[in-house]
Amino acid sequence: MGNTINFNTGGSIALAINYEIQGPYSDKFLTKQAATTLRVNKEVFIRVDDAVFCVNDADVDLTAASDLDTGSSFDASETYYVYACQPLDGTLEPDFKISKNATYPAGGWTADNSRKIGGFETDGAAEISESTVWDLRSTDLDGMVITENENKTIASGEITSAGTAKIRQITVDTQDSDPTDDLDKINSVNAGDLVILRAANEARTVVVKNGTHIKCGTDFSLDSVYDTITLLCIGSDTCVQIARSSNA
Question: Where do the domains of the chain lie, and which CATH numbers do they carry?
Answer without folding.
Answer: 4-138 (2.80.20.10), 147-245 (2.60.120)
